[in-house]
Amino acid sequence: MNGLVVGIDLCDDYTQINCTDEDKTWTIPTVICKHKHTDEWFVGEEAYAHTLRGEGSLVDKLVKLVLKEGAATLGQIRYEAKELLRLFLERVLALAKESYGIEEILQLVFSVRNLDVRLTQALYECADSLEIPRQNIHIISHSEGFIYYILSQKKEIWNGTVGMFDLSAQKLTYYEMKVQRGMKKTTVVAEYENMDEGFDLDILRTASGARLADKILCSCAERMMQRKAYSSVFLMGKGFDERDWAENFMKLLCTRRKVYMEPAIFAKGAAYRALDYLEEKTSYPFTLICEGRLKSTVSMNVLHKGKETSIVLAAAGENWYDRVSTVDVIPDHQNSIDLVVTSLDARKKKTVSIPLDGFPKRPERTTKVQICVSFLDEWTMDIRLCDRGFGELFPASGIQIRQEVML
Length: 407
Known about the structure:
This protein folds into three domains: 4-141, 2-Layer Sandwich (Nucleotidyltransferase, domain 5), CATH 3.30.420; 145-265, Nucleotidyltransferase, domain 5, CATH 3.30.420; 296-406, Substrate Binding Domain Of DNAk, Chain A, domain 1. 25% of the residues lie in helices and 37% in strands. The protein has nine helices and 24 strands. It has helices at residues 44-52, 62-67, 81-100, 117-129, 142-151, 155-158, 207-225, 247-253, 265-276; strands at 4-10, 14-18, 25-29, 31-35, 41-43, 56-60, 71-74, 77-80, 105-112, 137-141, 161-167, 172-180, 187-194, 230-236, 259-261, 287-289, 296-304, 307-314, 325-329, 336-343, 349-355, 369-377, 380-387, 400-406. Helix 3 (81-100) packs across helix 4 (117-129), helix 5 packs across helix 9 (265-276) and helix 7 (207-225) runs parallel beside helix 8 (247-253). The relative contact order is 0.11.
């Protein structure tokens, strides 16, 4: 390959970057600093160093700033959050380019804690500014990054339930992945839960605090993992850099289970996904169900060339944030558009009926309706119906009906 394949795990406290190299991952604090005198920009530890010497102004929590659509004033100049994120990513990517001596980026996949339209749009705009073709940019959730990392390992690691504890400075999160083999296609399901029992890592500095943290983790593990057969359990996050304080927790996990420590699962999972985009045939021929992917299929029963058939407008396992389907239909003796929503359990179906109230009254089969289906999140479908008329005989009125539907 003549270009870089990059996975980036973008979080508020740190950013990790991996180029499908198991032995090389950069971990950089997600902060940026503008030098007071030279106007030069620094990121990560360099940003902290210049700020401590009083040479610059620091901005942290860049992801949160983007989500708030905020800004920061540095040296009497106001910078939008998206611009600060672009400057940060430009310097982060420069590390990889310089290390490998390669300028071109073939594929770049971001893994983020939670998918949000504002963040995904900001990342796409950053890529545009960095002259990376938009078709080479992809954004996945941490859950999906977890899936790609695990499925890239030996099969004995994921032939049963896989669990993972992520202990960061921000929170404690438990992830779980299962492979469900069906007659037609294998489905991989990954879920996560933010533990209410999360704690500040500063308590690990004292013996009593470490004992409390160990007790908290044991309680979480017992609650989340009881009566389940695990093929492997993973630990990641700053809190597990040292594990001497978690003696009882480690004993609990290691009882009849294989336990692995991997500090960069989301970045490496994103890099594996980026590499897969370059292959003619995917290495992951599965239906993925996780945050960022639809958990239901949306279809419509129609009559096509005299035969009844079903057309799929969105399928379970597809990305919700870039899925848009448009189809034109001609209602025949009906005054509504009916869509069928089917969950993973095919026995669970519901029909969503949208009345064509307000559309012009015309003879039967002389109204063409454009149906546009998109998603506001993985649970909310946005349906737009537009009157397209019927040629010159019945011009389009431009009337639209919009409805949001909970899947």
